[in-house]
């Protein structure tokens, strides 16, 4: 049941990555990447390096083993409730995987779940010529069966903060996720790296049970039972149970905090009472902090999005001069019904505290920002350090690159689907798209929602129109996209509510941004509105573009882009997926797995 990645596959990927840098292994200078010089990394590589063409190959492989186990009566980290959970190495969230820019990462996943397959995706990782390690069952691999093992091997071509999670139906909602940190240069200086800080929703029920309820008509998704900061919080109905997450600063120093939203359904506005912060990257893309003001008092965090921020610690004297007690709330608020200006914290917050002689254990006493001060919309005006301009002349919108999203019942109204151009995604776990490609077959079913990227295009532009009032956090695999344009959020007070805003080529095209637009791997599609993204047609493989609300993805809200189809077999060794597919088939033959028609499988 063991599937191995051959050394040949690795070498192939190395060769195609960059012949110029592959010959010289990068070396670290001692004067580099100090608190005064974070822009520096190693000889010839710094914050201005375009990682799409240059990566400081270290020749090192970091190895991790993640053992995925099922717990029947897992006590929630807030002590409030017991239910099923699925955890990596018995830890919630899973362990942080850490590497340096240019390392190879080898994560061996051991599936000890009782009844579920699994498939682990490395969110935001480029996977250049390495689609077989993207970890999407039914697309790039078969699920890893119970008692099966698979090693995912990939290059840390980018650097910054991201996460990994199961792509097997809504399974990550049971706890199957963890942070992934790749050390590299930064676009502003700091003294202390505090590490990852996931903020996510928590339910007193398993993801499997919630999803099976939502697949029926007229169901509303449950409200979360808590918000977890770095995996914990107090019980909202009994503050003596569980514990607050505490972020500890040293007075006077600058601290880097790596925000991640690995929720299944919630977006947040993040803020810290009494502290502004500087955003140095969105997703895995460093931001220029000198030609724009990235110092903010709050930031919107959609599902799948990350922000690395730098917090300037106050001096002991500054703290003493304040009305507070040296402790400050870290809030993750939500606007009511997606209406900006109505943000509030439904659950207890986390605490920012200081390590100094006068520190106390008291709870913060200053309430924090007024709700209307909070930014409650996704930011699209951040400019990356490495500039990329998009050829306006190549821009064209037609029905062939328009995706229309809606919530659609089936004919006899017994099930509901999230559809894209009238079809909800439904992958075949036993026969991933890469298997069709290997067989040189194009006879995949319509429910694969597969869109072939025209071979001759350099840039691929996509207009997504959202018929529903719900905003959707859209995430692309295998690339960063640029956000060329977007309608205002439907809740924007200047817009009549619920009025659909179609993309109007005449009115809207002049306002699109082709000059160094925001570049990242997850962004919001506004309710009753539109979004235009573009990405380069340069990574052979089958790549998902999906809503990152777990319920929506599992109910169909996804397409797959098939890119440079004729080059896929050359770029990687597709036979490497075979062993695991055989193991999965053996499992299926004896234990028919649950995969109802209206579960997309991702
Ligand atoms: C990771 O495992 C590979 C293969 O077993 C080995 O060659 C390599 O030295 C290991 N890396 C480290 C950092 O130990
Ligand atoms: C979990 O809890 C249920 C209900 O309390 C109980 O029936 C079951 O035996 C427990 N399972 C384990 C493994 O403890
Ligand atoms: C990855 O780790 C597994 C388990 O330790 C090992 O068998 C395999 O050789 C490693 N692969 C590479 C490319 O280092
Ligand atoms: C996964 O396991 C859970 C709990 O054991 C079960 O309820 C669910 O049906 C399984 N899902 C799949 C997709 O196999
Ligand atoms: C997995 O291995 C355990 C221990 O060897 C065994 O009890 C269990 O039946 C196996 N499960 C499957 C699905 O093969
Ligand atoms: C998050 O929790 C882990 C485990 O308890 C801890 O080691 C880490 O310091 C925490 N991170 C922050 C930013 O507080
Ligand atoms: C944060 O920035 C706001 C302006 O947006 C400013 O009014 C406020 O004084 C700043 N707060 C701190 C603690 O620097
Ligand atoms: C940011 O923009 C400024 C002004 O355009 C430029 O001088 C600088 O080199 C850019 N890069 C960084 C990392 O600040
Ligand atoms: C940047 O914005 C912050 C917060 O809004 C504000 O406090 C600061 O004065 C601004 N800095 C510049 C250079 O405009
Ligand atoms: C620390 O507490 C002591 C005793 O209450 C007080 O005299 C001193 O001013 C405080 N120092 C600071 C920096 O808050
Ligand atoms: C921040 O969190 C604290 C503690 O939960 C709460 O009292 C305060 O109202 C929150 N602030 C906002 C703006 O919701
Ligand atoms: C979440 O927990 C369940 C089970 O205890 C309750 O039934 C729900 O009412 C609760 N939901 C919220 C929003 O707190
Ligand atoms: Cu959605």
Automatic annotation (TrEMBL):
Keywords: Copper, Disulfide bond, Glycoprotein, Lignin degradation, Metal-binding, Oxidoreductase, Signal. It catalyses: 4 hydroquinone + O2 = 4 benzosemiquinone + 2 H2O. GO terms for molecular function: copper ion binding; hydroquinone:oxygen oxidoreductase activity. It comes from the Eukaryota. Residues 1-22 form the signal peptide. GO terms for biological process: lignin catabolic process. It is an enzyme of class 1 (oxidoreductase). This is laccase. It comes from Sordaria brevicollis.
């Amino acid at each position: 049941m063991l599937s191995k990645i051959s050394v040949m596959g690795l070498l192939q990927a190395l060769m195609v990555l960059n012949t110029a840098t592959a010959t010289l292994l990068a070396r670290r200078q001692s004067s580099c990447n100090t608190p005064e010089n974070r822009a520096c990394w190693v000889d010839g590589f710094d914050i201005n390096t375009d990682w799409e063409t240059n990566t400081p190959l270290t020749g090192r492989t970091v190895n991790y083993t993640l053992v995925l186990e099922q717990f029947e009566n897992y006590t929630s980290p807030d002590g409030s409730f017991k239910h099923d959970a699925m955890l990596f190495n018995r830890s919630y969230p899973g362990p942080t995987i850490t590497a340096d820019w240019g390392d190879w990462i080898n994560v061996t996943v051991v599936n000890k779940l009782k009844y579920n397959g699994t498939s682990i995706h490395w969110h935001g990782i480029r996977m250049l010529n390495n689609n077989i390690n993207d970890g999407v069952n039914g697309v790039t691999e078969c699920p890893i069966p119970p008692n099966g093992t698979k090693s995912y091997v990939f290059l840390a071509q980018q650097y910054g903060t991201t996460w990994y999670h199961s792509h097997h139906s809504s399974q990550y909602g049971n706890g199957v996720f963890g942070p992934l940190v790749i050390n590299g240069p930064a676009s502003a200086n700091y003294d202390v790296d505090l590490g990852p800080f996931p903020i996510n929703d928590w339910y007193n029920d398993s993801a499997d049970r919630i999803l099976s309820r939502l697949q029926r008509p007229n169901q509303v998704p449950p409200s979360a039972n808590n918000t977890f900061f770095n995996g914990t919080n107090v019980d909202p109905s009994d503050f003596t149970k569980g514990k607050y997450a505490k972020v500890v600063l040293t007075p006077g120093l600058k601290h880097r905090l790596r925000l991640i939203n690995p929720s299944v359904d919630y977006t947040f506005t993040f803020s810290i009472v009494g502290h502004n912060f500087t955003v140095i990257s969105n997703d895995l893309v460093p931001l220029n902090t000198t030609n724009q003001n990235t110092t903010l008092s709050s930031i919107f965090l959609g599902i799948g999005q990350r922000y690395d921020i730098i917090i300037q610690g106050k001096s002991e004297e500054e703290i003493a001069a304040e009305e507070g007690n040296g402790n400050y709330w870290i809030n993750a608020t939500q606007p009511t019904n997606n209406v900006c200006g109505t943000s509030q914290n439904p659950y207890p917050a986390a605490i920012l505290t200081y390590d100094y002689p006068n520190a106390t254990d008291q709870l913060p006493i200053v309430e924090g920002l007024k709700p209307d001060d909070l930014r409650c919309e996704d930011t699209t005006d951040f400019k990356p350090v490495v500039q990329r301009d998009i050829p306006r002349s190549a821009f064209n919108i037609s029905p062939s690159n328009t995706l229309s999203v809606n919530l659609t019942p089936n004919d006899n109204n017994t099930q509901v689907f999230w559809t894209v151009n009238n079809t909800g995604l439904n992958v075949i776990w036993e026969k991933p798209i890469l298997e069709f490609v290997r067989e040189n077959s194009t006879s995949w079913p319509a429910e694969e929602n597969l869109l072939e990227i025209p071979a001759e295009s350099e840039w691929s532009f996509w207009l997504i129109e959202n018929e529903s009032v719900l905003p959707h956090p859209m995430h692309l695999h295998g690339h960063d996209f640029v956000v060329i344009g977007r309608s205002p959020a439907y809740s924007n007070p200047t817009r009549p509510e619920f009025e659909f805003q179609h993309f109007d080529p005449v009115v809207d095209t002049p306002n699109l941004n082709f000059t160094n637009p925001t570049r990242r791997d997850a962004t919001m599609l506004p309710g009753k509105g539109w979004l235009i993204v573009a990405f380069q047609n340069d990574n052979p493989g089958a790549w998902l573009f999906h809503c990152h609300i777990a319920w929506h993805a599992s109910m169909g809200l996804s397409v797959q882009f098939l890119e440079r189809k004729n080059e896929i077999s050359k770029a990687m060794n597709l036979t490497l997926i075979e062993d695991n597919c055989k193991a999965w088939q053996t499992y299926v033959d004896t234990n028919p797995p649950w995969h109802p028609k209206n579960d997309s499988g991702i």
